[in-house]
UniProtKB/TrEMBL annotation:
Pfam families (alphabetical): DUF327
Highest taxon in the source lineage: Bacteria
Protein's name in the database: DUF327 family protein
Region entry Disordered, spans: 1-29
Length: 146
């Protein structure tokens, strides 16, 4: 009889180990998701830094090549933000034409990029005006992922 009790305690220990390993799988998947979101956020921060640097270059050089690079970086940032699950803030309200408010930020970004292009083409615009437009675009981009 003594042998059966020792055998039973060994089985109980194995069952306890299996229960802890099954419970441990959930935190692992949560950790993977957290790390994935951290990497995406880090990638967005890197893209934002690239956008800021390209904006500074535009203010100094005022040429079309830098403007084209800036526009492509802004588009890439918006695409990354949408692809990696950063949800565009949607409110329950709609504008007069029935469109949701979530599209307003992207439309504003496009409008500001067009205005920035026109400012660069217009030789009379000062660097301060161009920097103001770049700052507005940066604010809209930050609004996308905060």
């Amino acid at each position: 009889m003594k042998i059966n009790q020792e055998l039973r305690t060994g089985i109980d220990k194995r069952n306890a180990n299996q229960k802890t390993s099954a419970a441990g799988s959930k935190p692992f998947s949560e950790m993977v998701l957290k790390q994935e979101s951290k990497l995406h956020l880090q990638q967005l921060n890197t893209l934002m830094a690239n956008v800021e640097e390209a904006g500074r270059r535009i203010a100094k050089s005022r040429n079309m090549r830098d403007l084209s690079r800036y526009k492509s970086l802004v588009r890439r940032f918006v695409q990354e933000a949408v692809d990696y699950g950063l949800k565009v803030k949607q409110s329950g309200s709609f504008d007069y034409s029935g469109n949701s408010r979530s599209l307003v930020t992207v439309e504003q970004l496009d409008q500001h990029l067009i205005e920035l292009t026109e400012s660069l083409l217009n030789e009379d615009q000062s660097s301060i005006d161009i920097l103001a437009k770049i700052g507005e675009i940066k604010g809209l981009l930050i609004n996308l992922y905060t």
